[in-house]
Design a protein that fits this description.
36% of the residues lie in helices and 17% in strands. The protein is α/β, with parallel strands linked by helices and 507 residues long. The protein has 2 domains: 34-80 and 165-491, Alpha-Beta Complex (Spore Coat Polysaccharide Biosynthesis Protein SpsA, Chain A); 89-159, no CATH class. Strand 7 and strand 8 form a beta hairpin. Helix 4 (86-93) packs across helix 8 (142-150), helix 9 (177-188) crosses helix 10 and helix 12 (295-324) packs antiparallel against helix 14. The protein is globular. The chain starts with a helix and ends in a 22-residue tail after the last strand. The mean pLDDT is 95.
Length: 507
């Protein structure tokens, strides 16, 4: 199936022929749907902390930092902003001279002065048309105004990464999401030496732009918040690309060469694996707010971090007891109760185990990476969210599932999706080192059967694309997980440009 040129291409990417064959096999077999036990809810699977418990968690987080604890913020930032401006492109490329009344484009034009990029837009429209945005609007030149935002000769926002767009207005200069992530890190994750470690994953074609922006703002932001920033960047590794397939499952080729595509955000488990820090916060680049609206975010970041440490303290205590062989049947039962009530792990096989087998089972389950995931009450479509799902070994545990992982023909599962009370805002804090301070090898904890296949096209030809298990889905399937409710005030993503007009993004 593969020529010598094919094999040379695989080697250059760091992919073995066996891996390629396994990927092509997936086009034939597909991925199994997950078996679900129930949606996670405050009654079962989602922890709702009291004010006293939140205060204790915040205190534990501050203690961890004061004691020299390691922490890093990990921010996926490789996405282009093109989807943010989908409606704008449709308008500029369409036949209508003016947007439909009440449409997102019409609303944006009406409130364009409220955007943080308005000063930059003014410079651009003066250069392109010799007029201000207000003048263009008054003359009904809606297409020219919108084109100045998205086209290469204008702000070029349609081609830039989301992390480098102007989101929020400040008297001293308007900020991008990159700057807001620095600010949030300074207020939640400065270590005992006053250093904030941040890592951004970026695309190769935008890396230079990120480097330039960070060189411009890092020292200035550090002085403002009284910290020092240690910022690093990485790109998705070529070895995580997946081969594209024809509808018949054979390799999709262009110019005779097999085509590979990025494997989705699940590829970032390799980047996360390279981070040398015990604790890692994970949050998407666009979920940021200005300083004036960050109080809730700061509080719940500390809550999640402290709750993680409380769980880790207990896990360490139990693993130390098991390692020393100093446990009674009652203590083993306490460990099982902790796994059940705090980590959501259930397994009927436990009942038949003797003490020795049970101790080994508990050790195997607890000696894993740990994550605490903030969960927000669902105020719209459920989408991806928290569930209790069955694992290949027969146990059940908390998992973040996407709709693609759930059988659409299963009416029982459809009801579960409809009854889900919470969704996943991608607000995670993780403990990724073992008791000896050695990092877990995170790819070992991926469930490879949780990827999915999507239909795409290239130059008019249909192809099948293979998505790796998602970073917070199947890539963390075999981690220990706790879901904690956080308020919707901590979730302020910018999915469309009009989201920037919402109160959460107005200073």
């Amino acid at each position: 199936m593969f020529s010598s040129d094919d094999l040379a291409l695989f080697e250059a990417k760091g992919i073995t022929p066996e891996q390629v064959e396994a990927q092509l096999k997936r086009f034939e077999t597909g991925f199994p749907y997950l078996k679900i036990k129930s949606p996670a809810s405050p009654a079962s699977g989602i922890t709702v902390l009291s004010e006293e418990e939140e205060a204790a968690a915040v205190a534990r987080w501050k203690e961890y930092l004061a004691d020299g604890g390691e922490v890093c913020k990990f921010v996926p930032a490789s996405g282009a902003a093109s989807r943010m401006f989908k409606a704008l492109f449709a308008f500029v490329d369409g036949d209508d001279e003016h947007p439909a009344e009440g449409s997102p484009v019409a609303k944006l034009i009406a409130d364009i002065e409220k955007t943080a990029f308005y000063p930059d837009l003014t410079v651009v429209t003066e250069r392109l048309y010799g007029k201000t945005p207000e003048a263009l609007r008054a003359e009904g030149r809606d297409k020219d105004l919108i084109a100045a935002i998205i086209k290469p000769e204008g702000l070029n926002y349609g081609a830039l990464p989301k992390g480098l767009l102007k989101f929020h207005a400040y008297a001293e200069g308007n900020r991008t999401p990159v700057e807001e992530q620095l600010a949030e890190g300074a207020q939640t994750a400065a270590n005992s030496n006053g250093v904030v470690n941040l890592h951004f994953t970026v695309s190769s074609n935008h890396r230079k732009l990120f480097e330039e922006k960070l060189a411009e703002v890092t020292d200035k932001m550090g002085q403002k918040y009284g910290v020092k920033f240690n910022v690093s960047l990485s790109e998705q590794k070529p070895s995580t690309d997946t081969i594209a397939g024809n509808p018949d499952g054979t390799p999709f080729r262009e110019d005779g060469k097999p085509v590979f595509r990025p494997g989705g955000h699940g590829a970032l488990i390799q980047n996360l694996n390279d981070i040398d820090s015990a604790v890692v916060f994970i949050k998407n680049i666009d979920n940021v707010v200005p300083d004036s609206r960050r109080e809730s975010t700061i509080h719940y970041k500390q809550v999640l971090g402290g709750y993680l440490m409380e769980l880790h303290d207990t896990i360490k205590h139990y693993l130390d007891e098991l390692a020393a062989g100093q446990y009674t049947r009652g203590e083993l039962q306490n460990m099982v109760a902790f796994m059940h009530f705090k980590l959501g792990i259930t397994d009927r096989a436990i009942d038949a185990m003797n003490d020795t087998d049970l101790a080994m089972y508990i050790h195997e389950k607890l000696n894993r990476p740990l994550r605490v995931c903030g969960m927000v009450r669902n105020e719209g479509e459920p989408g991806g969210g928290p569930f209790i799902a069955y694992n290949p070994d027969g146990s059940a545990s908390p998992q973040i599932l996407e709709s693609t992982q759930i059988d659409p023909e299963n009416k029982e599962y459809a009801k579960m999706m409809e009854s889900a009370t919470h969704f996943n805002p991608v607000d995670l804090v993780c403990y990724v080192k073992d008791l000896h301070g050695k990092g877990f090898n995170l790819p070992d904890y991926v469930d490879p059967a949780t990827g999915f296949i999507s239909s795409k096209s290239s130059h008019g030809k249909e192809l099948r694309a293979l998505e790796l298990p998602g970073l917070w889905n199947g890539a963390m399937s075999n981690w220990n997980t706790a879901f904690v409710e956080v308020p919707v005030s901590t979730f302020n993503p910018v999915k469309t440009v009009n989201d920037l007009l919402r109160p959460a993004h107005q200073s």
